[in-house]
Specification:
Blueprint: H1 2-13, H2 15-28, H3 40-54, H4 62-65, H5 67-92, H6 96-107, H7 113-120, H8 125-151, H9 159-183, H10 185-191, H11 195-213, H12 215-246, H13 251-262, H14 266-276, H15 279-304, E1 311-313, E2 320-322
Antiparallel strand pairs: 1-2
Amino acid sequence: MDGIATLSAFVGRWFALIVVVAGGIALATPDTFAGGGALVPYLLMVIMLGMGMTLRATDFAIVARRPWALLLGVAAQYVVMPGVAWLLTQALSLPAAVAAGVILVGAAPGGTASNVMVYLAKGDTALSVAMTSVSTLLAPLLTPLLVLWLAGEYLPVDAGGLFTSIVQIVLVPVLLGLVLRLVVPRVVERVLPALPLVSVVGITAVVVVVVAGSADTITSVGLVVVLAVVLHNGLGLALGYGIARVTGMDVSARRAISIEVGMQNSGLAAGLATVHFSPAAALPAAVFSVWHNVSGSLLAGHWARRDPAAGRVDGRDGVLVRETER
């Protein structure tokens, strides 16, 4: 498994570039990937099964230890991102299908890549994992309701169908992964190094299918979609941090909430848009899949160079340095 672990680390490091290249190929030769939409839900099921296998009962212990931080973070996730998405659709006058896609991204739960970014940013990783897990478990209820409420003015929304799809694509695989970790932990531990590779391959395949199916839309509104995605992600990161700071969270928790709010499960959003709307509605999620990994990596790199503690000891001369984030 050492070779697979090395390959997983490599593709994880170059994930954004891999997705950009794959998307470019799909845009240049869309007919090559025609008909791939039917595979998207199954690809997402495999990814979510992998997420469930990475979870442990201890990941939810923070619910008892620090319920306020977790509740604040999850509430921000499901208020900030859908709200910002709706405002952007109004401000940018997006086409109906694209607007619905932006809102679907905003109403999606947190993505698993955020846990890695929080770790690299020296943030509160336990809080990050708990937020991702809880927001994912709440998704079958909250995501359809939010999409129905905010995107209903653009396209007909089958909230019941969205609920069923999210249960099938998210809830069942995640719970199955949790059960497998409890029942056959040794087997799961052996396959864990391969899971990042599975996730990258799965998300890349989803992006390829979405880009191929919406090639005509990309040529007409591509720049506007990119602008919407960059603003959506950036405002989510900033507002998440601001809310955590105003409510008195420490720096490591602020970083975790910021990244968790700003980074979405865009693969799930792309899959739901493909099944329930159109490839054009899945386009914002495909772009988000690339961009939030770029912005998350840049932000994590910046924060990694700053000690999250209020004070730290300078290794050169032992002087206590006061350091705060604004």
